[in-house]
Amino acid sequence: MKRIAVFTSGGDAPGMNACIRAVVRGAVYHGIEVFGIRKGYNGMIAGDIFQMSSHSVSNIVQRGGTILKSARSKEFMTAEGRQKAYDQLQAHGIEGLVAIGGNGTFTGAMIFNNEYGVPTVGAPGTIDNDLYGTDYTIGFDTAVNTALDAVDRIRDTASSHDRIFFIEVMGRDSGYIAIQSGIAGGAELVMVPEVLTPLSEVVETLKQGWSRSKSSSIIVVAEGEEEGNATEIAERIKAQVDGDVDIRVTTLGHTQRGGAPTAYDRILASRLGLGALEGLIAGQKNVMAGIINNELVYTPFEDTIRLPKPINEDLLRMVKILSI
Amino acid sequence: MKRIAVFTSGGDAPGMNACIRAVVRGAVYHGIEVFGIRKGYNGMIAGDIFQMSSHSVSNIVQRGGTILKSARSKEFMTAEGRQKAYDQLQAHGIEGLVAIGGNGTFTGAMIFNNEYGVPTVGAPGTIDNDLYGTDYTIGFDTAVNTALDAVDRIRDTASSHDRIFFIEVMGRDSGYIAIQSGIAGGAELVMVPEVLTPLSEVVETLKQGWSRSKSSSIIVVAEGEEEGNATEIAERIKAQVDGDVDIRVTTLGHTQRGGAPTAYDRILASRLGLGALEGLIAGQKNVMAGIINNELVYTPFEDTIRLPKPINEDLLRMVKILSI
Amino acid sequence: MKRIAVFTSGGDAPGMNACIRAVVRGAVYHGIEVFGIRKGYNGMIAGDIFQMSSHSVSNIVQRGGTILKSARSKEFMTAEGRQKAYDQLQAHGIEGLVAIGGNGTFTGAMIFNNEYGVPTVGAPGTIDNDLYGTDYTIGFDTAVNTALDAVDRIRDTASSHDRIFFIEVMGRDSGYIAIQSGIAGGAELVMVPEVLTPLSEVVETLKQGWSRSKSSSIIVVAEGEEEGNATEIAERIKAQVDGDVDIRVTTLGHTQRGGAPTAYDRILASRLGLGALEGLIAGQKNVMAGIINNELVYTPFEDTIRLPKPINEDLLRMVKILSI
Amino acid sequence: MKRIAVFTSGGDAPGMNACIRAVVRGAVYHGIEVFGIRKGYNGMIAGDIFQMSSHSVSNIVQRGGTILKSARSKEFMTAEGRQKAYDQLQAHGIEGLVAIGGNGTFTGAMIFNNEYGVPTVGAPGTIDNDLYGTDYTIGFDTAVNTALDAVDRIRDTASSHDRIFFIEVMGRDSGYIAIQSGIAGGAELVMVPEVLTPLSEVVETLKQGWSRSKSSSIIVVAEGEEEGNATEIAERIKAQVDGDVDIRVTTLGHTQRGGAPTAYDRILASRLGLGALEGLIAGQKNVMAGIINNELVYTPFEDTIRLPKPINEDLLRMVKILSI
């Protein structure tokens, strides 16, 4: 393999730049030419492709977002789109790809490989940590710390005013951000999509707290929680508790996506970028590089896409004990 | 004056603890006994009053929220409530008060003084910076930096995805947080209650940006903006621009209230706490301590309550120049 | 076991409070009485022991330092000291201990158990991550991020002035903080006690950088590096490179010990505090609770004390590739 | 005036990029061509000069350091150096300059103007806040908050171990950073170059603290303090207090120079950059733009260079009261 390209796709995540840097510098180290593709599959189709050098990735390891920009591509879902993308790669002499993204990205890469034989190795870049095949995804640790910072700030107000706060964090299908920011933030309860939390349990927890004269409470809710979003849940709880309870809701939203990556995310991203590149050089394809138990592993895209990532139920148990 | 009390009232703001500390240590320094009242006027009515010493305020200068807790009191708006409050102060031998809060707090103090002759000096504690009689209020600088941190994070995603973001910050009657976080965050436009921004101007600004191939834009909206909240404005803009524009909305909410105060807020809070105390000792009453042009000044409550605080229109002009 | 006590000993580390909280609330959950001992073994000897409840550990999960205070005790190294300590534990009816600290702490606990039969389970609290028996110690992740924040700040100046900076981080016997903050901070070289870096290699790396017109460089040095401390190394390098090279040194020092713990450290501390407590209840003694490959494990004190913790040499290789 | 240039010179300071951005976008707004000069006077001499557009300063408002790089130039102190610089400016058709820096920078500009008639308006960029003619300099607020963050972290360890810490902050001739970070950090004492603090007073303060059973203390020392640097002072204090006092020293160093600027610094830098530019357009020369009492003012270079900036002694008084 003499020439490869790297791109980011799907939602951006802190650490993507550190990952791009590792792919580019790893390629330089191994004597391979490396190109960047802007805006994911859209840029591949449009030929927004440029050569990168060691210098192209100077001073980016600490930056959030992605210097290659990202997009979700509808055109790549069509046969015509993929044909154009292939033609562009051919025109640039690109023989293999490193794709930084999530399951949508990997699904596209798998279909593309089946049709055109272009090998792709993936690196898991998504704040949600919802990918099978790696303990953690790039961006997750930063997102948890950003959410935690918000929980800490809100606790100041909750304590000062004896209030109950429902805080909605990201995680459409996954409660990882909710559980980790909830435990770390000392939440009384964490509501996640993976495990049903009946509203009666929420009411029970709040009442138990009051009986121990806990006057403020924080409940962290993942956006994908079955009982509805934080605002809906708060409304229903308000209807079920008597008297003058002061309940507020905060939805953290897109602030969780950005910011300078944590040390953990930069190191993880560097290892996975280098791992994906070196896997590609060694002949891997249709796999995602991951770190499980501190070891680099490659998991077939079809598994990362198909298999659910179980949540650590020990952690949910811990929330209960620690909020006693 | 031999014995005074301090309390916080209204919405909490970062730096209130630094202010409490300055009042308490200032009282110790001047040989005056000092008491704390918990939960604002509610605690005054309920007699939730306790003696404080230098040690009571150790290690709090860096903490958000208020160790004295805060509340908005309906009972104090009644003659019976104020009678009970006065009886409690009498029972504890308290001769004067330092009230840390906003206009609601000062209105209560003024009425109370007229009825019972208890002198109160105020210190402006509110993140909104909407009080006449001081350049800045305690908590404002921290809130601006918290909002700015969110703007910075969101810009990472906005740039990576070529998106337009509407970010709603606090400020029901005041655009101070919006203007300062907007300028500092490099926003394309800032919408504030003090100055009407027609939607046509928003559309114009976005289109001008596109014509200069600016692909991402950030618009900061104060919650009290006349055109509606950020979600409503975003909806209406979406309807007015053609094609496939990706517009998102984030509402920062209560995260802006908490967190460790900045250096500026801790110093301001210390100066105002000490200034309020020393004013009270010197015989002031029904006034708020403020800092204008770096000088300590006392402004009558009736002025802080009645007079509007003008916004610096030079700053609005600057937004336009800087986003060119 | 009906009554246990918890204490912190040795250097303080962010997350110790989260660990204390987990021990206390875990004990409450399991119906066991729990006491706190102030200032480590010194407080045990002096009888500075007090009962704790769920409420004692409210609002501390986010705080650096340790509410139980810490100390290194010379008196506990004497037979008389340990006799007094035992008498105090007897007087308070304490049947078992959770010790949060490092190898000095565990050595004391082991000797104490051998002499008096008081079972102790340890939790690894030290920023250095130099303990065998756990992947990470409590406080390490926070210290790395604090060091990284400094590296990021210094890079601003290094780039602006084309300077070379030597940054000394903590780690007397261990290069963990240096390696992780170095990789994450994009350092050109990392010097650690575990692997000798000859000065000639440092000079070579700097010259290679210049040949690629890298004008600024950052070299992270662990304080225990064999070639001397950062200032000494910088002096010697200056003597070996020709001409007008601008070399500066910054020693991060004690700032690395404090601060609000990261999410990772709070969760790790919570798991290890609970794990240590539940181990003690289950009859463990003379062991340290650790997390290896995401599983809770108990390692005998004699192993944590005796066995070296190997550094991940893959990471050192990665520094070279990434700084190309 | 049709074409101007902007450069940064002297030590870098957070906010310089925001200032460059304001100069560039202000020039675009006013229809003037704007060039950037790299590495201060060195780049002017070497002709390292390039045209800038609105897009050149996108996405830099939040970055520490300076994209134009900075340097202290020995060659510009020679007549030959200045001749070359003038020739380069002539060759590029540059009619006026905005210089972002401190007194060294302004001295050079004044001499240059006297010799060659090139008008320069300055903007005060230095973390030390030691320039007459403005209440605050660009970078000062960020440096204070960075120092404060370190003080907060160290207080965690000081409290946990009952230790005394001497923390040395930047400020060769000026105690501004020391005073502000000291008050905000709750220091027991602040030592500054402007006011002699005899060692006997330090010992007295520490002893008074102990008599009130304050077990930990923080003393902030400006690097230019007459009694010596923090390490020397700590040594001498150690010799003067009896018994087993645990005294530590931390020197914050270059971490204070970098980092994302605070909101305050970004707004100040924007106002001063625009103010300097508009002054230049209006015919000003040999003056520095400053903000005094929230008004834009222009002060002759000879005054900013010659006149001392007095320190606010009220703040020193406040340290004493607040540490009681």
From TrEMBL, chains A, B, C, D:
<feature type="binding site">
    <location>
        <position position="103"/>
    </location>
    <ligand>
        <name>Mg(2+)</name>
    </ligand>
</feature>
<feature type="binding site" description="in other chain">
    <location>
        <begin position="214"/>
        <end position="216"/>
    </location>
    <ligand>
        <name>ADP</name>
    </ligand>
</feature>
<feature type="binding site">
    <location>
        <begin position="102"/>
        <end position="105"/>
    </location>
    <ligand>
        <name>ATP</name>
    </ligand>
</feature>
<dbReference type="GO" id="GO:0016208">
    <property type="term" value="F:AMP binding"/>
</dbReference>
<feature type="domain" description="Phosphofructokinase">
    <location>
        <begin position="3"/>
        <end position="278"/>
    </location>
</feature>
<feature type="binding site">
    <location>
        <begin position="21"/>
        <end position="25"/>
    </location>
    <ligand>
        <name>ADP</name>
    </ligand>
</feature>
<keyword id="KW-0547">Nucleotide-binding</keyword>
<protein>
    <recommendedName>
        <fullName>ATP-dependent 6-phosphofructokinase</fullName>
        <ecNumber>2.7.1.11</ecNumber>
    </recommendedName>
</protein>
<dbReference type="InterPro" id="IPR022953">
    <property type="entry name" value="ATP_PFK"/>
</dbReference>
<feature type="binding site" description="in other chain">
    <location>
        <begin position="170"/>
        <end position="172"/>
    </location>
    <ligand>
        <name>substrate</name>
    </ligand>
</feature>
<feature type="binding site" description="in other chain">
    <location>
        <position position="212"/>
    </location>
    <ligand>
        <name>ADP</name>
    </ligand>
</feature>
<dbReference type="InterPro" id="IPR012828">
    <property type="entry name" value="PFKA_ATP_prok"/>
</dbReference>
<feature type="binding site">
    <location>
        <position position="11"/>
    </location>
    <ligand>
        <name>ATP</name>
    </ligand>
</feature>
<dbReference type="InterPro" id="IPR000023">
    <property type="entry name" value="Phosphofructokinase_dom"/>
</dbReference>
<comment type="subunit">
    <text>Homotetramer.</text>
</comment>
<feature type="binding site" description="in other chain">
    <location>
        <begin position="126"/>
        <end position="128"/>
    </location>
    <ligand>
        <name>substrate</name>
    </ligand>
</feature>
<dbReference type="GO" id="GO:0070095">
    <property type="term" value="F:fructose-6-phosphate binding"/>
</dbReference>
<dbReference type="GO" id="GO:0005945">
    <property type="term" value="C:6-phosphofructokinase complex"/>
</dbReference>
<comment type="similarity">
    <text>Belongs to the phosphofructokinase type A (PFKA) family. ATP-dependent PFK group I subfamily. Prokaryotic clade 'B1' sub-subfamily.</text>
</comment>
<keyword id="KW-0808">Transferase</keyword>
<dbReference type="GO" id="GO:0003872">
    <property type="term" value="F:6-phosphofructokinase activity"/>
</dbReference>
<dbReference type="GO" id="GO:0030388">
    <property type="term" value="P:fructose 1,6-bisphosphate metabolic process"/>
</dbReference>
<dbReference type="InterPro" id="IPR012003">
    <property type="entry name" value="ATP_PFK_prok-type"/>
</dbReference>
<feature type="binding site">
    <location>
        <position position="163"/>
    </location>
    <ligand>
        <name>substrate</name>
    </ligand>
</feature>
<feature type="binding site" description="in other chain">
    <location>
        <begin position="186"/>
        <end position="188"/>
    </location>
    <ligand>
        <name>ADP</name>
    </ligand>
</feature>
<keyword id="KW-0324">Glycolysis</keyword>
<keyword id="KW-0963">Cytoplasm</keyword>
<dbReference type="GO" id="GO:0061621">
    <property type="term" value="P:canonical glycolysis"/>
</dbReference>
<keyword id="KW-0479">Metal-binding</keyword>
<dbReference type="GO" id="GO:0042802">
    <property type="term" value="F:identical protein binding"/>
</dbReference>
<keyword id="KW-0460">Magnesium</keyword>
<feature type="active site" description="Proton acceptor">
    <location>
        <position position="128"/>
    </location>
</feature>
<feature type="binding site" description="in other chain">
    <location>
        <position position="155"/>
    </location>
    <ligand>
        <name>ADP</name>
    </ligand>
</feature>
<dbReference type="GO" id="GO:0005524">
    <property type="term" value="F:ATP binding"/>
</dbReference>
<keyword id="KW-0021">Allosteric enzyme</keyword>
<comment type="function">
    <text>Catalyzes the phosphorylation of D-fructose 6-phosphate to fructose 1,6-bisphosphate by ATP, the first committing step of glycolysis.</text>
</comment>
<dbReference type="Pfam" id="PF00365">
    <property type="entry name" value="PFK"/>
</dbReference>
<keyword id="KW-0067">ATP-binding</keyword>
<feature type="binding site" description="in other chain">
    <location>
        <position position="223"/>
    </location>
    <ligand>
        <name>substrate</name>
    </ligand>
</feature>
<dbReference type="GO" id="GO:0046872">
    <property type="term" value="F:metal ion binding"/>
</dbReference>
<dbReference type="GO" id="GO:0048029">
    <property type="term" value="F:monosaccharide binding"/>
</dbReference>
<feature type="binding site" description="in other chain">
    <location>
        <begin position="254"/>
        <end position="257"/>
    </location>
    <ligand>
        <name>substrate</name>
    </ligand>
</feature>
